[in-house]
Amino acid sequence: MNSQKYNMSFTAGALLQPESVTIAKLYLELGDWDLVKDKVIAENLLQSRALSTLKRLSHEIIARLRTLNIDELTLLIESERQEQAYILWIAICRYYHFIADFATEVLRERFITFKPDLQHSDFDTFLNRKCDWHSELDSLSISTRKKLRQVLFKMLRDANFLDRKNNIQATMLSSRLIETIKRNGSRDIKYFTISENAI
Predict the structure, then answer these.
(1) Residue 22 vs residues 28, 69, 123, 197: alpha-carbon distances, Å
(2) How big is the chain by its Cα radius of gyration, in Å?
(3) Residue 13 — very low, low, confident or very high, per pLDDT cuts 50/70/90?
(4) Which Pfam families does this UniProt record tie to the protein (predicted)?
């Protein structure tokens, strides 16, 4: 049994790219996550219709962004759309170890072994396999499993790891992002559809 439990609360939102960039900019201005959260909620900076949604989204985004250092947050707000998506993917994988393991053990593994697509059954098989090591997964209902799968596949499409037919797309990392990943020990490269030899 694995001592580190999986956090499976990622149904709050998929990539949340524009919202994440907005909050990252605010943090670089204010330098305090509590102040950021207060301002986001007080001024409804995510333009949510319901306060409960606003609080849930701001909590989710801040939790992800807190895994990034100042250099990574700066790169996030200075980058173009695709690179922003890749940086947010790193943040998601750092925060959600289940997604990190899926990215490494399923998505990247299929890519480097020339298996061209990713199907819902690949997610289901992975989750069922992890149940042997993570008892917290046993209590997930069928509807929750489907929702988790739906959100994860949407993340993968939003970040352009999958096309509309769920074919796996190669990652094209900029030299600037590769250098950022290398400074952190290169572990994050395993979350991408790229071979380590490529960098």
Answers:
(1) 10, 16, 31, 34
(2) 17
(3) confident
(4) BrxA
State mean pLDDT over 64-72.
Answer: 96
List, in order, residues 6 or more apart from 101 with CB less than 8 Å away.
126, 130
3-state SS, residue 117: strand
Predicted TM-score (pTM) of the model is: 0.94
Residue pLDDT, tens place only, 137-180: 999 999 999 999 999 999 999 999 999 999 999 999 999 999 99
Q: Where are the chain's structural domains?
A: 96-199
CA distance 21 to 83: 12
**What residues contact 27, with CB distance under 8 A and at least 6 apart?**
33, 36, 65, 73
At the topology level, CATH places domain 96-199 in 1.10.3540
- Least reliable range by pLDDT among 48-52, 72-76, 91-95, 147-151: 48-52
Give 169's DSSP letter: -
Residue that is written with structure tokens 């909050």 in the block: 23
Task: Please say whether the beta carbons of 130 and 123 come within 8 A.
Answer: no
Interacting residues of 104 by C-beta distance below 8 A, sequence separation 6+: 190, 191
Among 108, 113, 119, 103, smallest CA distance to 194 is for 108
Of 125, 108, 126, residue with least CA distance to 162: 108
Q: What is the pLDDT of residues 89-120, one digit of tens each?
A: 999 999 999 999 999 999 999 999 999 999 99
